[in-house]
Specification:
By secondary structure, the chain is α/β, with parallel strands linked by helices. It folds into two domains: about 350 residues, Alpha/Beta hydrolase fold, catalytic domain (Rossmann fold), CATH 3.40.50; about 120 residues, no CATH class. The strands form four sheets. Strands 1, 4, 5, 6, 7, 10, 11, 12, 13, 16 and 17 form an eleven-stranded mixed β-sheet that branches. Helix 3 links the parallel strand 12 and strand 13. The protein is built from 15 helices and 17 strands.
Length: about 525
């Protein structure tokens, strides 16, 4: 998830997955007494400062999973892990929750999946309590939530029967913070973030003897930007490879997503099919009352052809051509031809979210156009907030906190941050892929992904996209995947799956069912 327009890119019954109570608990890990302090360093006032040596902390609980016809024992570990630089100096304490199925003698060969949300500046709560963990938050799909109390249910769609799972909170989110000489802000850049999460993954793999395990990486939204860079970083720096990488609501090339860059024409054509999907959902497409996918295929062809040509022609477009393009875009989106021409065909997702239902006094969500909410000022050009985040964040946060403190027994008397807007606003989006001659001013981690797919012939990619996602539009993802500089053999290792949902595919129950089937098939076919 990324700035406001790209957040998330950016997600308890007695007989449930955890059972009525924890069956067994291990004590919290003791601090390392061998080293009591960090290295002495100078503060801003030139006075020496000493800080206690950070130590790994964890709480281990054991449970019984019984949902969706599956039944097995598993262990949950909630904790923080100290990561160190190349000189073995502590630099950050990163929070995680790990789940491992109890199978005697099979730990080293059992698959393990590392996952994170995006923002940047978001913890892993949404993936944790919406898709991957043994508990799932009950939410009202495409509508405002019921008032508290917020409830959870056994997650029959969890992948814990197929793979162990580690949910990661980047520095500045959850309980994760810099230590010793470092500040949280030191990690708020593409490359520093990739380095820190890579160090955590490598450390976790070593600590838990998982080097021989099939390994997977799953990122959502900006987490896909991170994941594409991490698979290349760990391959090159640690010889740690993955069987598969999973992109949920992909956002690898920021220039194809950001509409605020002067002279950048690419986003507008790739956004049009998602705008059309939203208009179709609200019955605003004249004459298009049939199935969604054939309609979108028609819009795709127009966006890639006549519409892209019109954008490229710019001011050379004749008056007759302008009228024709405006009329066709109107037919696909329901926006007025006057608005379309006034915008010079270059409509951002925030403007579209504000405009589509303006006559009804409503604004649609950029992350999931099926959600809509009231608007305070219909005269605004861009949507002032995202109804999907406004509706989903409270139940996810509240249910997670209760689960984290009670069921997992961790995090009490500490402040857990779902999101960090300061990190999102201050994030440095420059990136230098490994081996690249120049630094990118705006990250495009398709370069990293392509390099890995060429050098690692075993890596497979699964791309998961919602049709109603305006933050990571499905046609934008198609563009990214089709412009990887890789041989045809590598192209054949990429799968794309589509859902009648938005950015957080898993909040739509029919899509969640299909999503679990697609994940299961991918995991089964890649090791």
């Amino acid at each position: 998830m990324m700035k406001t327009t790209f957040l998330m890119f950016c997600t308890l019954l007695a007989a449930g997955a955890y059972g009525a109570s924890r069956a067994e608990e291990a004590p919290r890990a003791e601090s390392d007494t061998a080293r009591q302090t960090c290295e002495k360093y100078e503060t801003g006032d030139n006075k020496p400062k000493w800080e206690r040596q950070p130590s790994n902390q964890s709480r281990v609980t054991r449970h019984r999973f019984s949902a969706g016809g599956k039944s097995f024992d598993y262990t949950a570990t909630a904790g923080t892990l100290v990561i160190r630089d190349d000189y073995d100096r502590p630099i950050a304490n990163i929070g995680y929750v790990a789940y491992s199925r109890d199978e005697h003698g099979k730990v080293g060969s059992r698959p393990i999946l590392f996952a994170f949300n995006g923002g940047p500046g978001y913890s892993s709560i949404f993936l944790h309590m919406g898709l991957l963990g043994p508990k799932r938050v009950i939410v009202t799909d495409a509508g405002p939530p019921s008032p508290a109390p917020y409830n959870t249910t056994d997650n029959e769609f969890s992948v814990l029967d197929k793979t162990d799972v580690v949910l990661i909170d980047p520095v500045g989110t959850g309980l994760s913070h810099a230590v010793c000489r470092k500040k949280d802000a030191d990690f708020w850049s593409v490359d520093a973030d990739v380095d820190s999460i890579s160090r955590l993954i490598a450390q976790f793999v070593s600590d838990h003897e998982r080097w021989s395990s099939p390994k997977y990486l799953l990122g959502e939204s900006y987490g896909t930007t991170r994941a594409a860079a991490i698979v290349d970083y760990l391959r090159a720096q640690r010889s740690l490879t993955f069987n598969g990488v999973i992109f949920l609501s992909a956002a690898l090339d920021m220039e194809v997503i950001f509409t605020a860059l002067p002279g950048n024409e690419r986003p507008y054509a790739t956004y049009l099919p998602s705008f059309a999907a939203a208009a179709w959902y609200y019955h605003l497409v004249p004459g298009a009352q049939g199935p969604l996918e054939p309609f979108l295929e028609e819009v795709r062809r127009y966006a890639e052809g006549p519409f892209a040509t019109a954008l490229l022609k710019g001011n050379a477009l004749s008056a007759a051509e302008r009228d024709a393009v405006a009329e066709q875009v109107h037919q696909y989106t329901g926006l007025s031809t006057e608005y379309i021409k006034a915008a010079n065909f270059r409509i951002s997702e925030a403007s579209f979210a504000q405009e589509l239902l303006k006559s009804r006094g409503r604004v649609i969500a950029r992350l999931d156009a099926r959600f809509s909410g009231s608007t305070q000022d219909a005269r605004e050009k861009d949507a002032a907030y995202d109804p999907s985040l406004a509706y989903l964040s409270p139940p996810f946060m509240s249910a997670f906190q209760d689960y984290y403190h009670h069921d997992l027994g961790f995090g009490a008397e500490q402040t857990y941050q779902l999101s960090n807007s300061v990190a999102g606003n201050d994030w440095n989006l420059a990136h230098k892929p490994l081996g690249a001659g120049q630094q990118q001013t705006l990250v495009n981690s398709t370069v990293d992904l392509a390099q890995t797919m060429v050098q690692d012939p075993n890596l497979k990619v699964l791309v998961l996209q919602g049709y109603f996602d305006l933050g990571s539009p499905f046609a934008t993802t198609e563009y990214m995947m089709s412009h990887l500089q890789i041989p045809q053999e590598a192209v054949s290792r990429i799968q794309m799956k589509y859902y009648d949902s938005g950015h957080m595919i898993y909040v739509h129950l029919p899509s969640l069912r299909r999503l679990q089937q697609d994940l299961d098939q991918f995991l089964d076919s890649t090791h």
